[in-house]
Amino acid sequence: MGLMVYAKPFDEAKALRVARAFERATPHHLRRPEAFELGGA
């Protein structure tokens, strides 16, 4: 899953607020690929 956040030029603060809200509302940022969970590459 991916999310791309857009904002008007020079309005990076808004894009960061949206990204932070998404991170707080979902557990997606806590997920890791299976290879990392097993300690292998």
Please give a handful of descriptors for the protein shown.
mainly alpha
Helix content: 40-55%
Oligomer: single chain
Structural class: mainly alpha
How many DSSP H or I helices? Answer: 2
What does this entry look like structurally?
With about 40 residues, this protein is mainly alpha-helical. The protein has one domain. It contains 2 helices and no strands. The chain is elongated, with a radius of gyration of 14 Å. The mean pLDDT is about 85.
Task: Sum this structure up briefly.
Helix content is 44%, strand content 0%. It has 41 residues and is mainly α. The chain has one domain.
Secondary structure elements and pairings:
Layout: H1 12-25, H2 34-37
